[in-house]
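To assess whether ligand presence alters the predicted conformation, the chain was also submitted together with magnesium ion. Input:
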Amino acid sequence: AAKAAGKGSYRFFTPELAERLVDRITRSANLKHAIEHRELVLYYQPRVCGKTGALTSFEALVRWMHPSRGLVGPDNFIPMAEETGLIVALGEQVIDLACAQLAQWREHGLPLLPVSVNASARQINEGGLSAALAAALQRHGVDAALLEVEITESATVAESRIATEEIAALQRLGVRLYVDDFGTGYSSLSQLRRLDLFGLKVDRSFTARLLHSDEDHELFRAIVSMAHAIGMQVVAEGVESREQLQSLIALDCDQMQGYFLGKPAPAEQMPALMEKAVPFTPG
Ligand code: C2E
Ligand code: MG
Ligand code: MG
Ligand code: MG
């Protein structure tokens, strides 16, 4: 059989692949250590209302404060965390950090705005996300209406009993759910309706093309009308210019986010934005 498989059957023994395996094991051990030693930090990026221009919420984006490499972005470790399953522990820590931050802002008497955390579809498909959220909210005495959850569209939420129950449990808690990077996956209208989510975040590639052609512009308009028709809010990601912002307002987009409105920054920089904001009243 080995002979029939040809050269390919020896590939697992090449030094290069062994090296890669060692590298991956090392990196995942390092990330595990980082989670245990609480080396993860959250940066926050503001979102604004498309009708009033007011600050509405913050997205929490994880970074790894590496003792020797400095600040490491999520693209360097989230995919590996997904593959190894570490994403569940990482996700729980992110939820805990976000709730701790909300509690700290409240203690400082700041007007509270919701914080949106990114979750892995694994946390829904395997269950446990709602329990982790409920525990963190209780631990820090935070109202569930102050927490939002984003799930990337390309990471499909299974049509399983666990996933369905998990989403129902999140909704019972009062946590709003968003599909992240909408347009990069394959969600159908019926799936979106079945999941009964609060909103969708249109992937930044659509915002980038918005002003390139009439077709791109009409495509965005169609996404907004479709979402509104099924009762979902629309958030545009990756707004980088005043012109894009103006078009999105005209398209009746509900919220906007992007470098033009504010880059992700450490929590310490948020109170300056919050003091100018309209306070959020739960319920
Ligand atoms: P995402 O959730 O779609 O977050 C938006 C990403 O786009 C962020 O990158 C943000 O910094 C970047 N961004 C925001 N505005 C602009 C803009 O105007 N132009 C451009 N070019 N980029 C913009 P970041 O922070 O590197 O995060 C990358 C991805 O990593 C996130 O994409 C999310 O999928 C994932 N991620 C981040 N934090 C977490 C987390 O706590 N848990 C999980 N599971 N995934 C996370
Ligand atoms: Mg997101
Ligand atoms: Mg996104
Ligand atoms: Mg993304």
